[in-house]
Amino acid sequence: MKYYKFLSIMLIFLIVTLFVGCGKKDHDCNKITSVKIGNQEWMAENLDVSTFRNGDAIPEEKSNAEWERAGWECRPAWCYYNNNPENGKKYGKLYNWYAVNDARGLAPDGWHIPTISELEELKAAVNSDGNTLKTIGRGTGSGAGTNTSGFSALLSGGRSDYFRSLGKFTSFWSSTESNSTRANYLFLSYGGSIIGFYYGYKLIGFSVRCVKD
Fold this sequence. Notes:
Layout: H1 2-20, E1 34-37, E2 40-43, H2 64-72, E3 78-79, H3 85-91, E4 94-95, H4 97-100, E5 111-112, H5 116-125, E6 158-159, E7 163-164, E8 169-177, E9 182-189, E10 195-201, E11 211-212
Antiparallel strand pairs: 1-2, 3-4, 5-11, 6-7, 8-9, 9-10
């Protein structure tokens, strides 16, 4: 009797687990916090997944040579700034554009990587004031963050052939490519309120923010 009771409890537990899953979390079961800005809902933290939505692992490339090789071979990759997991707890991961554009899906279910048009809509919603997107205490002088939007951008730097500019700037990939080797991104700096749009080599590692479908 006790045996059947135990089996019943285990069956209920498995059913509940299957239906509950991760809740409002990404596919790595990180909690998703979000903020409504204008007509859009944005993640309020940088993406921090190491798998695609289908469960396939995204390669972590640590050395500069490995990172560049992945880019030149058009392969997806991620890293922590300075390869330090402690940075990941604060800034999330840096991804090359091949991870952003992979058909297996970098963004969690119900979310997507923004197009350049969606990033331009974000800019318009905050009246082109980049300080409203930056966390309080990030930036200086005319570039001091106010975070009145709740977007909570951190100056998480980037990576090309080496790591650069932690605390100086942040860039967010769009899903829009400029040409066969470059894609568009949004740029914020510590020294000014500008929200810039540029295009960079797809092998560069930038942060990612997702927007709700």
